[in-house]
Amino acid sequence: MKTPVPPPASPTSRSVSQVVPDVTALKALAHPVRLRMLGMLRVDGPATATQLATRLGLNSGATSYHLRQLAQYGFIEDAPGPSRRDRRWRACHELTSVRPAETKGEAFDMDVAFAQAILSQQVSQMQKAAEEYAELPLEWRKASTASDIIIPLTSEKAEALTKRLNDILLEAMSEAPPLGEPLPPAKVPFTIMLHAFPYPGRLPHDEDENEP
Questions:
Q1: Contact (CB, 8 A) for 39 and 50
Q2: Regarding beta strands 88-91 and 76-79, do their DSSP bridges make them parallel or antiparallel, or are they unpaired?
Q3: Do 56 and 36 form a contact (C-beta atoms < 8 A)?
Q4: C-alpha span between 146 and 50 (Å, rounded)
Q5: Other C-beta atoms within 10 Å of 20: how many?
Q6: Could you count the other beta carbons within 10 Å of the beta carbon of residue 117?
Q7: Which residues pair with 65 in a beta bridge?
Q8: pLDDT higher than threshold 70 for residue 208
Q9: What whole-number distance in Å separates Cα of residue 129 and Cα of residue 122?
Q10: Is the per-residue pLDDT at 74 higher than 80?
């Protein structure tokens, strides 16, 4: 997972906030409940531990613990609210970027673990989207896709292609309203999941390739 680089700003674009966590912060984030919590706060906006517990089917004590972990590593922060009694939380960034580890070790292990955690969450979201597809209005079914495109490329060309695709997505994000706030009419959060990888089984697996 390469770190996206924001494209040049247009007159109508805004800055998209991103976080690049270190190994310790990534270890705290690579937990299915915390990933879901952070996603909810990013998409739906500020919430209390009680509200998140209800959505996740957890008790408020467990929810509060996970929120404190996210706050400790800078993923979320206090949000102003109507009542000091009910503490509200909000996401600090719109995107999380992870740089691939170059050698084996703790960073490499967390890179792999985080990729697995993210994939599990994304598969769940894609399954829910597939279940809802038949109920979508025609205009949103036209906007949806489940493409599978395989192109023979070198690693350099593949990296350049994924960077171009990420640049396009970041440009679109910078020109859209921020998540977590009331959206204009007719606009809803639209999910694009980009998975790019060598076709499984076509490259040799050298166990020593990433050794220091």
A1: no
A2: antiparallel
A3: yes
A4: 35
A5: 13
A6: 17
A7: none
A8: no
A9: 10
A10: yes
